Amino acid sequence: MRTVAEAFTEFSSRLEITETESDSASRRQRNLRKQVKDGGVDVVDDFLIGAYARHTKTKPLRDVDILVVLDDRAYLDKRPRKVLDAVKAILDPLYGADRVCIDRFAVRVDFGVSVVNDVSSEVISFDVVPAFTEGDHYLIPDDHSGEWIKTDPTVHADKATAANKALDEHWKPLVKMIKKWNDHAGGPVEPSFLIEVMALDLLCPPWTGQTPYLLREFFASAAERIDDGWPDPAELGPYVSDILDGAPAKMTTAKAALRAAEASCTEAMRLDRAKRTSDALAAWRALFGPLFPSS
User: Fold this and answer.
1) How does the average pLDDT of the chain come out, rounded?
2) pLDDT tens digits for range 108-122
3) pLDDT of residue 80
4) Among 28, 44, 107, 180, which is least packed, fewest CB within 10 Å?
5) Phi, psi values for residue 139, rounded to 5°
6) What's the pLDDT score for residue 40?
7) How many alpha carbons fall within 13 Å on the CB side of residue 46?
8) How many Cβ atoms sit within 10 Å of the Cβ of residue 162?
9) Coil, strand or helix at 70
């Protein structure tokens, strides 16, 4: 039977994007760009952003973000919903209206891919984010506020890279594990990007090699500080925590889930110290889901 340390190494490996998944994402990206362009919207540029581009995306691959930079700046004089409606109208006939929806900043396309035990060789869904250039950053629609907001994916990526380097290349794997917990728990922390933003402050060097302890410390600190208010790391857009900040019931649920995760870590570590390895592995698997090795 593998040790808990070996199980975490295997868990981290299972969360890595495979070549097949990467090829699927690239193919979907090219198709979506062509489909938007063929639909009568001038596309200046497109590239992957978000957790996938930052290498902090967990599995299965859903809601992969693609920024589609458009040329028709007349949209900026209209409500943001107009450009989201336009992109949705282009994609509806191709994928079916029941698989295309508007989700705050983007038009989400669900490809109807099946998932078994948190595994799929194909990308499940893409979020098409229409954007316009503005100086050294971008403007994207926010259907929640009804305003155009600023964003700079480069800053987000640079901060993630710096944090990963400072923690001896373990920051991103830890973030993916925590995101996997959030996904398995039903998404109490939303958006999942909030986990990354908190991790910039809460997962600090030096790297101790003690993954279970660092995870428990994150859950404990996050439960205490999630309601602090977490701004956009690029200092451009709205607070990343605005969904929970504006919904007390959701915030309470998120705090409770984080505290429960901390308690689960404590119990799993106790079982490991008692040399009940099988029970410890089962406890970690209950926390993270089927991608965590069971034996």
Assistant:
1) 95
2) 999 998 888 888 888
3) 95
4) 44
5) -110, 130
6) 87
7) 22
8) 12
9) strand
- Give the residue carrying structure tokens 């008692």: 274
Q: Which candidate, 151, 175, 179, 163, places its Cα nearest to that of 240?
A: 151
**Interacting residues of 276 by C-beta distance below 8 A, sequence separation 6+:** none
Confidence of residue 269 (pLDDT cuts 50, 70, 90): very high
Q: Read off the amino acid at residue 268.
A: A
The string over 183-207, giving b where at least 16 C-beta atoms fall within 10 Å of a residue's C-beta and e elsewhere, is bbbeebbbbbbbbbbbbbebbeeeb
The answer to whether 51 and 192 are in contact (CB under 8 A) is: yes
Which among 10, 18, 124, 117 has a CA at the least distance from the CA of 62? 124
Bridge partners (DSSP) of residue 131 are: 69
Q: What are phi and psi of 141, to 5 degrees?
A: -80, 145
Length reported for the chain: 295
Q: Whole-angstrom Cα distance, residue 188 to residue 190? A: 6
**By three-state DSSP, how is residue 108 classified?**
strand
The alpha carbon of 30 is separated from its chain's Cα centroid by a whole number of angstroms, namely 21
DSSP string, 235-287: SSSS-TTHHHHT-HHHHHHHHHHHHHHHHHHHHHHHHHHTT-HHHHHHHHHHH
| CA distance linking residue 221 with residue 179, whole number of Å | 16
pLDDT for residue 53: 94
For residues 100 and 108, is the Cβ–Cβ distance under 8 A?
A: yes
* Pair of tokens at residue 20: 């097949």
Helix (H, G, I), strand (E, B) or coil at 214: helix
